């Protein structure tokens, strides 16, 4: 009966491409966006920037524009008759207890839990043999649930904890120290910390990094160019914190610090871009010891992952585009003395440590393989995973013998496993409570050829038995930049698409790191067009093989992926029916003028680099590339507190898109208030945005989603 119902349900979805028109769903007139006369000149070329005024997020006219745009967007979305049905379905799907993998600090085991629809996950702790108790509840930090905890770090003995608070998703945080036993605040709250962890040294204090707060212009969009590493001694004012690294003598854009587990070495990484870093160490066992440079250039990536006495274990891609693990004596740590412990291979390597062991995480065609090694480099176990997907974790203290990891895929809800280091055996620790039956769905990997013949992998997920007739609503999602790996992961939101007979597809584009640094470099600077070509080829593959068609295809991506979507619809406005550029980098001539944007130059290049680089950027920059055309139905999304990719990118792009749209499809911008680049959003904000995404997508495809049969996802065929 259920199988038969599903087939009837799928057949009933497609009510014709004119659904939105038949329902008379259309946007109200767009706000009249004024145009200025600002221009810039690059190598003799004058570039107009008529919407430059929208870069000032403090200005009253910008605030008024945001309000008017949101009114138009919400008025449009309010007309969609099934919008609330989707919201209720998402709330039902989301309403189950969600747990993180546990971790041990001092005498307690800690874990995060969200009861279901709580705004933020709550941090619990549990003593041996005791009952769980609330340790920190971020839901009490603000009335609307938009103040989140942006990380926590415990001192080695577990008696002290430092956690960071982010307001409205901002990257600027405040750091609070508490006595972990009494939960009482210790000392003053540190203000204006950014892009930093908290690195404890005993119980004396900790290291942290931050920038000087911009003195002129917007606090959210002002440039933050020089990172500084400080030492904060507990009980002293922040104004007395000691500068350890950075500043005028060693200016660097990104600086991070951490201690080895035995607290013998302070490790400092320093960089001016998002790829490559210098490496420094300081032997804290020797009072007054100097900070020693290990690698003095930023051409490659290097991290100290562990030490045994004076032996350092360094993870690097020097002479190894897919990475390797080397060892060296800290007394003479230069790269010429490095010795391979785990050599490079065809698969990309990542390293974690737990239980006194090394865990090699290999990426094979964007899926995970795990091997356990001794500290001497002997292979001990190949970890048996429950399927093809993504395993994360395998990180714990040296004394821990039972550790935890999480496994997931596009059809395997995130499940926590307990792993015994001695035996190499895994047991299910916590199953997901989501209403989803994996047996009804399948996920397969295909390989397709891009424009230049490059072989690119893509994973396609859908309900078993779906007919490939070109009429399946499909969401194509990608990123393609900064060496970031897109590996399989379960999405509760995607159930709404899959249970309606829809298809979810994720290609691993060049610019990412799925095949190492060579793959990354094939999609940067004057090779960035490769990324767009890979994405367009993925869409064409889906259309050619009848998974979908232009009329039922949506494309989506966020941040660098928002740039990807923006560039794609300007180059191929005929490719898809719907587009979702989220928090995107849209002005490629000015991205480096805001916050830490200058650090993205390794991937993008800048308009100031050379005439050739300027012309290349100018050609594909989504904001500048818009011309009068019939564009797909587009909902740009951003947030008013995004201080990483400032909302001005999306503001300017949306204003110009509305100006240039010559077709009937809506071009809207949805601006989340009291939110940032993505991290720390409340559950209500996430559900709200996902509701609007699916509603906008379905209505513009002419799809009328039918409510799911109660209990259908949990049933067996």
Rg on CA atoms, Å: 26 Å
Stretches where pLDDT falls below 50 for ≥5 residues?
1-18, 709-717
Mean of pLDDT: 91
Into which percentage range does the β-strand content fall? 25-35%
Give the overall shape, derived from the CA principal axes.
globular
Q: Total strand count, please?
A: 39
C-alpha end-to-end distance: 9 Å
Largest sheet, in brief, is: 8 strands, mixed
Domain Peptidase S9A N-terminal: 32-431
Family: Belongs to the peptidase S9A family.
Protein name: prolyl oligopeptidase
Domain Peptidase S9 prolyl oligopeptidase catalytic: 488-700
Description:
- With 717 residues, the protein is α+β, with helices and mostly antiparallel strands.
- Helix 4 crosses helix 13 and helix 7 (529-544) crosses helix 8.
- It contains 13 helices and 39 strands.
- It is globular and about 70 Å long.
- The N and C termini lie close together (9 Å).
- InterPro entries: AB_hydrolase_fold, Pept_S9_AS, Pept_S9A_N, Peptidase_S9_cat, Peptidase_S9A, Prolyl_oligopep/macrocyclase.
- Its EC number is 3.4.21.26.
- GO terms for molecular function: serine-type endopeptidase activity.
- Belongs to the peptidase S9A family.
């Amino acid at each position: 009966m259920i199988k038969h119902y599903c087939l009837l349900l799928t057949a009933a979805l497609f009510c014709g491409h004119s659904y939105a028109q038949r329902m008379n769903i259309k946007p109200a007139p767009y706000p009249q966006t004024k145009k200025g006369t600002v221009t810039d000149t690059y190598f003799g070329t004058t570039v107009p920037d008529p919407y430059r005024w929208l870069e000032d997020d403090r200005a009253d006219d910008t605030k008024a524009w945001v309000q008017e745009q949101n009114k138009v967007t919400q008025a449009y979305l309010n007309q969609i008759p099934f919008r609330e049905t989707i919201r209720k379905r998402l709330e039902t799907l989301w309403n189950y207890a969600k747990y993180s993998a546990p971790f041990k600090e001092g005498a307690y085991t800690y874990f995060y839990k969200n009861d279901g629809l709580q705004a933020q996950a709550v941090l619990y702790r549990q003593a041996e043999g005791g009952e769980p108790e609330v340790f920190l509840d971020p839901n009490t930090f603000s009335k609307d649930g938009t103040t989140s905890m942006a990380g926590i770090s415990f001192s080695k003995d577990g008696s002290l904890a430092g956690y960071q608070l982010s307001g409205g998703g901002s990257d600027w945080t405040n750091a609070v120290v508490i006595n972990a036993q009494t939960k009482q605040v210790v000392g003053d709250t540190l203000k204006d910390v950014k892009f930093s962890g908290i690195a404890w040294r005993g119980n004396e204090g900790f290291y942290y990094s931050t920038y000087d707060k911009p003195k002129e212009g917007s606090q959210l969009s002002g440039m933050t160019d020089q990172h500084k590493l400080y030492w904060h001694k507990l009980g002293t004012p922040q104004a007395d914190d000691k500068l350890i690294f950075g500043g005028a003598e060693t200016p660097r854009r990104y600086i991070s610090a951490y201690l080895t587990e035995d607290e013998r070495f302070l490790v400092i990484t320093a960089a001016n871009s998002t790829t490559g870093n210098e490496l420094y160490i300081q032997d804290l066992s020797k009072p007054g010891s100097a900070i020693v440079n290990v690698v003095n250039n930023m051409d490659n990536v290097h991290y100290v992952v562990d030490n045994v006495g004076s032996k350092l274990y360094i993870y690097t891609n020097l002479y190894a585009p897919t990475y390797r693990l080397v060892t060296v004596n800290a007394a003479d740590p230069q790269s010429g003395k490095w010795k391979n412990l785990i050599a490079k291979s065809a698969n990309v390597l990542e390293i974690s440590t737990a239980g006194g062991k090394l865990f090699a995480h290999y990426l094979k065609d964007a899926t995970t393989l795990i091997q356990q090694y001794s500290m001497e480099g002997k292979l001990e176990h190949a970890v048996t995973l429950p399927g093809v997907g993504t395993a994360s974790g395998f990180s714990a203290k040296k004394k821990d013998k039972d550790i935890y990891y999480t496994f997931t895929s596009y059809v395997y809800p995130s499940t926590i496993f307990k792993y015994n280091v001695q035996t190499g055996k895994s047991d299910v620790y916590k199953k997901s409570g989501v209403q989803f039956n994996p047996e009804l769905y399948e996920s397969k990997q295909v390989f397709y050829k891009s424009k230049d013949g490059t072989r690119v992998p893509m994973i396609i997920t859908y309900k078993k038995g779906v007919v490939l007739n070109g009429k399946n609503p499909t969401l194509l999602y990608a990123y393609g930049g900064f060496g970031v790996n897109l590996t399989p992961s379960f999405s509760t939101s995607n159930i709404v698409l899959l249970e309606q007979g829809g298809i979810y597809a994720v290609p691993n584009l060049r610019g990412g790191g799925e095949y190492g640094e060579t793959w990354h470099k094939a999609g940067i600077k004057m090779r960035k067009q490769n990324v767009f070509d890979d994405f367009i080829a993925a869409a064409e593959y889906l259309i050619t093989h009848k998974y979908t068609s232009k009329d039922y295809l949506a494309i989506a991506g966020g941040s660098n992926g928002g740039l990807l979507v923006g560039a794609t619809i300007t180059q191929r406005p005929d490719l898809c029916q719907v587009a979702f550029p989220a928090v995107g980098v849209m002005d490629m001539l000015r991205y480096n003028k805001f916050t830490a944007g200058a650090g993205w130059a390794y991937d993008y290049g800048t308009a100031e680099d050379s005439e050739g680089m300027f012309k290349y950027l100018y050609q594909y920059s989504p904001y500048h590339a818009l011309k009068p055309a019939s564009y797909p139905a587009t909902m740009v999304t951003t947030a008013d507190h995004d201080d990483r990719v400032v909302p001005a990118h999306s503001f300017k792009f949306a204003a110009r898109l509305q100006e240039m749209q010559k077709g009937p499809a809506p071009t809207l911008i949805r601006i989340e208030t009291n939110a940032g680049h993505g991290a720390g959003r409340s559950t209500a904000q996430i559900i709200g945005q996902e509701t609007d995404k699916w509603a906008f997508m379905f209505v513009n495809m002419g799809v009328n989603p039918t409510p799911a049969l109660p209990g259908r996802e949990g049933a067996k065929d």
